[in-house]
Specification:
four-stranded antiparallel β-sheet, mainly beta, Methylamine Dehydrogenase, Chain H, about 450 residues, about 40% strand, 27 strands, 2 domains, binds heme C
Amino acid sequence: MLAAIFLAAGMLSPKVVAIRAAPASQTPSFSRDVFPILRDNCMACHSSAVKMGGLVMESYDMLMKGGKDGQVIVPGKSAASRMILMLEGKVKPQMPFGGNPLPADQLSLLKAWIDSGAAGPAPGEAPVSAQPNIPNIKPEVPVVSPIGSLAFSPDGKMLAVGGYQEVELLDPASGKVLAALKGHADLVRSLAWTPDGRRLAAAGGLPQRAGEIKIWDVASRTLSKTLNGHTDCIYSVAASPDGKLVASASYDKLIKLWDIETGAEVRTLKDHIDAVFAVAFSPDGKRLASGAQDRTVKIWDVATGERLYTLSEALDSVTAIAFSPSGAQLAAAGADKTIRTYALGEKGGSLLESVIADEDTILELAYTPDGKTLISSSADRSIRFRDAATLFPKKVLDNQPDWVEALSVSPDGKWLAAGRYDGSVSVYNLANYEQALGPLVAFVPATGAPKGRESALR
Ligand code: HEC
């Protein structure tokens, strides 16, 4: 048995090498040759959620746009391309940051692609999944799914946790898994309960291909519907306060409103000129707020789909927004590390407060149900608590083991759940900020699973 595996591996590897190190005569292709190298070695730090150095590699266009210091690829000139200089250690810090340098064959492939003009995917060429191929980095370590999303149920008795292709319902007191809802296309990036707690919308989808929302019937643990409609993955979903609509925000620059009961697409809201990362309904259900990579927050009329106005104070991508429970203020934050609060009027919003709140991109925002505290998490590995009116800091939980990409406050205001990129979940007691549960690994890989996934991807 073992011999057969080794034999098979031995027979396969020359083929793998042949694919990887394309002959000089053959021009490397972005999708087939370049993207897999970036996905497997760089995406952990250069995804749109993490965005180190301001550089995102999820698509050709984003890679060509470059990072905080501008373009990283000069087509036709690998020796003048900062990405290559950093991979070679000629410009510091060397990439991949803190890891082993790229093998020579992969480096020469990247150079050959740039020297051949750095062409993008051919029209009609099948896109490759941006799901990082973690097993390639740590072949012997089981794959732990990052936590993409978290949401307490309206009665506070369940915590829904979104991971790779799966949602778990946990008992927030014990951490016990009550149910596993499977069959999602990729990472579940956002979750929303209907206010009656009967349904859970779980959204994500395949980067550059399709958005997906699965509506689960929670009591029976069965799938009620799958909503497809966006052409890229969904970063945020919200349920309307009357429980009738779900709003989705996608990388495809669009926001869609869906009828939860029938699954019908009710409306498409189109005005953002770049990826939309966050949506939220006002507590009265009349308005929808959205935050996007185009550095704006837009306010929409839910009934008509009309864009009412745009708030354009942010200096970089808006990644998180939240309405205060009373609806009196809207908070928005993102890559400019600043939290801004607004009072929303009929024709425009007025800026209430603005503070540089963090040392890195702000990933999530949440109000406590009493509206007194605004909680944020950031790529500097902290969770910060602020007075919601003044934004004056109250408390910091720093030295988080990894980026906290998901936050949820229990409806009674007693608990804060935090989900991290390393796959861990903790529940904090908001009375004393002590950890009451965790860190626990939500999606424990089954033994043998990583091998299965590795062979599926290779
Ligand atoms: C562990 C995290 C990590 C990994 C993995 C990683 N990077 Fe980076 N990258 C960073 C950080 C942090 C910066 C910002 C460095 C600075 O400016 O001090 C950065 C910056 C860059 C920049 C410069 C962006 C700009 O405009 O300043 C390039 C180019 C880059 N990385 C390429 C790569 C490539 C290619 C890979 C994969 C082979 C990779 N990185 C893997 C963390 C990472």
